[in-house]
Design goal:
28% of the residues lie in helices and 32% in strands. It is α+β, with helices and mostly antiparallel strands. The chain folds into 3 domains: 4-202 and 277-366, 2-Layer Sandwich (Nucleotidyltransferase, domain 5), CATH 3.30.420; 204-274, Actin, Chain A, domain 4 (Alpha-Beta Complex); 372-494, Substrate Binding Domain Of DNAk, Chain A, domain 1. The chain is globular, with a radius of gyration of 25 Å.
């Protein structure tokens, strides 16, 4: 076994994987029954039970009755949300760190000291989300330099373990909390991401919530009384959702429903989540358009994530992509398995056997920028302040660009420098977020038209170095924007 691990930090379940002596990715089992249902994954829940921190399935099963049982905190990574765990204020990052530390322990029990780890993140999340995830991993004691997007990890696993034709593939990744759809280019074991889109807060949890509303409404209509939350719990909705993936109708569960038979049809469930299904469909269409390809150019559509088992998802795929999807082997663990391959691929190879090293030498993974990055400038045509995009979304990384601007006024003593981010290339500042802003002081007494060179360099470690250089004076300001780090490096002023 390798001492490099990949971790799928999931909304509802998390998994850890490594590569075996032959170089093939394998799940590192969690043998603790209170934490894992099948050994392949650990429930992403943390609870305080009898004044002790409990992780995994036992914590998950206590969530309905225990106010100190917390789950689904991945959805709030990178935000300022505060949870309560006993008397302690705790952040999503803290909770993720507790979970990651436990996953590290599981791996170390089987593998010994962990050399390096790769943690996955959804493709379409904020820099704050990525930074918070990396920080949680480091707080958990993991030696981590890289993260990988979840659909990319799944694609890597699929390409590595299957003899497939070269060409374009779509990865349809629907889990407990997020939806991602990516178009990838496969050439042997080389994976290049063409484009990714998705919806950050849309997944199995949202479907459970809508099913719960549906059951309560039907109960009220049929039995003329309310169904309380404690009588139909989140866990009941989850069980009924799974049942409706296998059958066209099911008897709704829950304690209150034991004496009253209430049937829920799959069609009713699909109607209840219709708005979310429309969002998924539109996201798929937009991704195909963004990739500038036709559906006929796509070899296969690969389903990943537990919620992709819901039958209507296959119907959406067939409608949009004009072909039946492929259900990937180890659908729930594919992301972790791909992350394990990526961890070995990104390593220096010193901790690998000759066979393991040879198995990952053929791998190549190319990511792209998931947002557009630019800076605020005054348009020479309109004299209005606009966003000038330097790195458009879907630019292959690593990438570097240099652009020259000029000062606007005589006797200008300062240059406003900022870094902007947007979901699409746009010149409208209303639709961008400022990641950073600073003032570069320059000498007095100069005429307008002084050259200012701006350089953005975005590397495959998800770090972007932004430089603003006043050519005549030689003064510079630099900023490291870290997409996958626990903190931005300090501004560097160069006189």
């Amino acid at each position: 076994m390798s001492n490099y691990i990949g971790i799928d930090l999931g909304t509802t379940f998390s998994s850890v994987a490594t590569i075996d002596d032959t170089g093939n990715p394998v799940i590192v089992k969690n043998d603790k029954l209170s934490e894992s249902i099948n050994g392949n994954s650990t429930a992403s829940c943390v609870a305080l039970i009898n004044d002790k921190i409990v992780i995994g399935n036992k914590a998950r099963l206590s969530m309905q009755d225990n106010p100190n049982a917390l789950g689904r905190f991945k959805r709030d990574m990178g935000t300022k949300k505060i949870y309560k765990l006993g008397d302690r204020d705790i952040t999503p990052q803290d909770l993720s760190s507790i979970l990651l530390e436990r996953l590290k322990e599981i791996a170390e029990k089987k593998l010994g000291k962990i050399e390096k780890a790769v943690v996955t993140v959804p493709a379409n999340v904020s820099n704050e989300f990525r930074s918070s995830t990396m920080a949680a991993a480091k707080e958990a004691g993991l030696d981590i330099d890289h993260m990988i997007n979840e659909p990319t990890a799944a694609a890597l696993y699929y390409a590595y373990t299957n003899e497939i034709d070269n060409g374009k593939y779509a990865i349809f990744d629907l889990g407990g909390g997020t939806f991602d759809v990516s178009i990838i280019e496969v050439n042997g074991k080389d994976i290049d991401v063409v484009t990714s889109n998705g919806i950050h807060k849309l997944g199995g949890d949202d479907f459970d919530a809508e099913l719960s509303k549906l059951v309560k409404k039907k109960f009220k209509d049929e039995f003329k009384k309310d169904l309380e939350d404690e009588d139909y719990r989140k866990r009941d909705a989850e069980i009924d959702k799974i049942s409706l993936s296998k059958k066209t109708k099911t008897i709704a569960g829950g304690e209150e429903l034991a004496d009253e038979i209430l049937y829920i049809k799959r069609k009713e469930f699909e109607e209840a989540i219709n708005l979310m299904l429309s969002q998924i469909e539109m996201s798929c269409i937009a991704t195909i358009d963004e990739a500038n390809i036709k559906v006929e150019d796509i070899n296969d559509v690969i389903l990943v994530g537990g919620s992709s088992r819901i039958p209507v998802m296959s119907s959406i795929v067939e409608k949009v992509f004009k072909k039946a999807p492929v259900l990937i082997d180890q659908l729930d663990e594919a992301v972790a398995l791909g992350a394990a391959l990526y961890a070995a691929y990104k390593s220096d190879g010193k901790g690998l056997t000759d066979m393991q090293r040879k198995s990952v030498e053929s791998i190549s993974v190319g990511e792209c920028a998931n947002h557009s990055f630019g800076t605020s400038v005054v348009s020479p045509e309109t004299n209005q302040l606009i966003n000038d995009v330097l790195i458009p979304k879907n630019t292959k990384i690593p990438f570097s660009i240099e652009r020259t601007y000029e000062t606007m006024h005589d006797n200008q003593t300062g240059i406003n420098c900022d870094v902007t981010q947007s979901t699409e290339p746009t010149d409208d500042l209303e639709f961008v977020k400022k990641l950073w802003e600073a003032n570069l002081e320059v000498p007095e007494g100069r005429s307008k038209g002084q050259k200012v060179v701006v350089t953005y360099s975005y590397d495959d470690s998800e770090m972007m170095l932004c430089k603003f250089h006043d050519v005549a004076s030689g003064k510079k300001v630099e900023k490291h924007i870290t997409m996958s780090s626990d903190e931005d490096l300090e501004d560097i002023l160069i006189e």
